[in-house]
Design a protein that fits this description.
The protein is mainly beta. It has a single domain, classed as Pectate Lyase C-like (3 Solenoid). Helices cover 9% and strands 43% of the residues. The chain is built from two helices and 25 strands. The strands form two sheets. The protein has a 16-stranded parallel β-sheet that branches. Strands 2-5-8-10-12-15-18-21-24 form a nine-stranded parallel β-sheet, with no helix packed on it.
Length: 269
């Protein structure tokens, strides 16, 4: 092979590899989906691989209910590049987009969740949940929290969270409404997420990424436009609340709360 041909071949291979890396994660579609969600509200009661069949929306606003409820362990919910939209209920909504409580090994991925009180809420009131994954989600214009997870050994990665806040739900005492782009407790690994604009109401703080338990780690996240970039609940435990590396915060009066532990000089600012 000539030097020119070898160079062209290497360039072609390099271009193909770069193009492959640039392609976003594919939706599951018919390859893996065993059940399809075609209407709301929907309750998942058995393990399996569930997918949205189309864009779905709801204008209903009953207090503290959810569009999709996961009531089983070992569930994959793939939005299939579709949108789950609750914005028609307005800023007073109490509806959560996707809710699971006290279940383990829940994966939510690949799509848009917009206009809910909480976009995704993987709750753990009994302390038994673990092994959640939230990935490749765009959580947009949710009024209190974009993505909230609780449970050991969970991962929140490669999500985009935008314009979180503005809740006028009557449950907000005195109209004070806090906002959290990503709110996790675990410990949890929070990796390669983008959180842009979180805002509170009536003096309430907005936090880009919030850690509620010890032992979490945050790597390569970006937070833009919030009162606090990274928040960590303070306590007397010797284990760090959250360890931060290679993160960037812009336009936040408090980029990193004092209880967060930054490694080296790899976080900006």
């Amino acid at each position: 092979m000539s030097i020119r041909a070898e160079t062209i071949t290497k360039m072609t291979v390099g271009a193909l590899m770069a193009a492959a890396l640039a392609v976003p994660a594919a939706a599951d579609e018919t390859l893996l989906c065993s059940r399809y969600i075609a209407a709301l509200p929907y309750r998942i009661t058995a393990p399996g691989h569930y997918c949205l069949a189309s864009n779905l929306s709801t204008s209903a606003n009953p207090a503290f209910t959810s569009a999709i409820t996961i009531d089983a362990d070992s569930v994959v919910l793939d939005l299939n590049q579709f949108t789950l939209d609750g914005s028609a209920a307005g800023t007073g909504t109490g509806v959560q987009g996707i809710l699971a409580a006290d279940h383990s090994f829940i994966m939510v991925r690949n799509g848009v969740i917009r206009g809910f009180w909480v976009g995704i809420h993987l709750a753990n009131p009994s302390g038994a949940a673990s092994g959640h994954t939230v990935e490749n989600i765009w959580a947009d214009r949710n009024t209190r929290t974009g993505i909230e997870t609780r449970g050991l050994r969970s991962v929140v990665r490669k999500n985009v969270v935008t314009d979180t806040g503005g809740s006028t739900n009557p449950s907000n005492t005195g109209g004070v409404a806090y906002a959290f782009g990503i709110d996790v407790g675990g410990p949890v690994s929070v990796i390669d997420n983008q959180v842009t604009r979180a805002f509170g109401i009536n003096g309430a703080h907005a936090v880009g990424i919030m850690f509620a338990d010890q032992g979490s780690i945050a790597i390569n996240n970006r937070v833009v436009d919030a009162d606090v970039g990274f928040g960590c609940v303070s306590n007397s435990d010797t284990l760090p609340q959250a360890v931060l590396r290679d993160n960037v915060v812009l336009n936040a009066p408090e980029p990193y709360a004092p209880s967060c532990t930054k490694i080296g000089a790899t976080n900006f600012p």
